[in-house]
Design brief:
By secondary structure, the chain is mostly helical. 44% of the residues lie in helices and 0% in strands.
């Protein structure tokens, strides 16, 4: 399954459960759904490339995704 294809969404465990992923109070519930999702990597990849500013994507909050981006940027600048 291509990372760039939206086909991965058809296999996502979160399908039809969108509200959970955009509710800060239910963050742990959303992450539990993501934990064993077969397309978690593709989802996170999408969120990082888009970039998605809100919600849990690929098991990561917006803050966690920003940290990942920052870490990657800092690692590249050290080269």
């Amino acid at each position: 399954m291509s990372r760039n294809s939206a086909v991965w969404r058809e296999h996502a465990k979160c399908s039809g459960k969108g509200d959970v992923f955009f509710d800060d109070i239910r963050e742990q519930e959303a992450k539990a759904i993501c934990a064993d999702c077969p397309v978690r990597e593709q989802c996170l990849d999408h969120a990082m490339r888009a970039p998605e500013q809100y919600g849990i994507w690929g098991g990561k909050t917006p803050r966690e995704r920003r940290r990942m981006t920052l870490s990657t940027t800092q690692a590249r600048s050290r080269r």
